Amino acid sequence: MPERPLSPHLSVYKFKYTLATSILNRFAGLILSLGFILLVYWLVALASGARAYAQARALLSLGVCKILYAVLLAAFVYHLAAGVRHLIWDTGRGLERATARRSAWIVAFVSLVVTALLVYSFLRPGAYAR
Amino acid sequence: MSLRAALGEVLGRGSAKEGVHHWWLQRVTSVALVPLSIGFVVSLLALPALDYATLIAWMRQGGTALGLVLFVLVAARHSHLGVRVVIEDYVHAPGAKTLALVLSDFAHFLFAAAAVFAVLKVALGGRL
Predict the structure, then answer these.
(1) Residues of B whose CB is below 8 A from A121
(2) What number is the ipTM of this complex?
């Protein structure tokens, strides 16, 4: 078969904000899929008893993990906001160019604010000290 | 009269009539995940601590275990559908694509089962 650019393709299209919102949503979804493994690990550790959980918690409390949680929170908030935007589109509303552009900005703004709030709530020094 | 091209007729590669099912299920799981995921994050935020005793007590409350089982099942299905599309879009070599799809299938079933098992073990178990 001849080599053709397949959609969605990042390197051949002119950059537009629509490309960014779309690929970010996909990327965030993939990050959350990986984060799901972390959730399963946490649940299985809990179900394996106090000692197993203490070990898992020591691992999950490392400084590196905090960066991971911040990324996961950002991915969660963006994927949620962008997902709701998609669900609204699925009803046939908000597809006009001006409206879509505005909703992209709303999603970006809401994501930043809510991510900042969640990162502060979960990861501020002293949170969940026990 | 068939509207199919002769080649398409021979290869038998028409619509599998499952495209809409995938699309629809992706939407249904999306809608369900809005309250389920927000509920999960909010109830984590409401916890006073993340030590063993607190979490076990939390998971043994009636609504928590049900909410968690629903959340992990629907999230796993949603992820399963999403990862499939990403593999189909970006992995083009036939062998690698099939392998990636099957691995994704196995991984999603495994993680969903492990998560549900863990939640039920805590929720229904005796002294841990």
Answers:
(1) 45
(2) 0.90
